């Protein structure tokens, strides 16, 4: 996406970053600051909601799954306090249902991790009536499958037998998949 297709950041460049992965949060804050934003970081749902209530940001990047709850609660708080805010939801566990929920609550876009600062900036600054460009480096089919299996495994409280049953997969096959490293 070229700079002509992006709307300008504007006078209010406040950006709320909510993620419980502290190294990622710091890297993203530095990268977004270089792009003209004024980032403020939060490592939890509670901290994100407190900042959104006290100083509603013009832009926000919120992780979906946080240690203390669901990032969609932060999205909802931002929407209540500042309806014109541009919000991007990030997640390592991409699913259609959560993407729909994020957009219904007012997120401008939904990106799968790992998303780089350029993708996030493009999503934040894209015109509201335009579709964002396709990702430069989309996840491979093997990676999407692995992410889905990991998500179901986490939702089943890391119970291999229950996960295998829900995925209609043999338990030993699932154990071999879980023992391997994630595909690129």
What can you see in these coordinates?
The strands form 2 sheets. This protein has a 5-stranded parallel beta sheet, with helices on both faces. The longest helix is centred in the last third of the chain and has 15 residues, at 141-155. It has helices at residues 22-34, 45-54, 72-81, 96-104, 117-125, 141-155, 160-167, 171-179; strands at 14-18, 38-42, 59-63, 65-66, 69-70, 86-91, 109-112. Helix 6 packs across helix 7 (160-167) and helix 7 (160-167) crosses helix 8 (171-179). The protein folds into 2 domains: 3-125, Rossmann fold (3-Layer(aba) Sandwich); 141-179, Homeodomain-like (Arc Repressor Mutant, subunit A, Orthogonal Bundle). It has 8 helices and 7 strands. With 184 residues, it is an alpha/beta fold. It is elongated. This is Photosynthetic apparatus regulatory protein RegA. Residues 14-128 form the Response regulatory domain. Pfam families: Response_reg (PF00072).
What is the topology, as strand order, of the major beta sheet?
2-1-3-6-7
Q: Rg, please? A: 17 Å
Full CATH superfamily name of the largest domain:
Response regulator
Judged by helices, strands and strand pairing, the structural class is: alpha/beta
Sequence stretches where pLDDT stays below 50 over 5 or more residues = 1-7
Strand content: 15-25%
CATH architecture of the largest domain: 3-Layer(aba) Sandwich
Question: Overall 3D geometry?
Answer: elongated
Structural domain count? 2
CATH class of the largest domain: Alpha Beta
Average pLDDT confidence is 82
CATH topology of the largest domain: Rossmann fold
Number of helices: 8
| Largest β-sheet summary | 5 strands, parallel
H and E order: EHEHEEEHEHEHHHH
Approximate helicity band:
40-55%
Distance between the ends: 24 Å
Question: How many strands in all?
Answer: 7
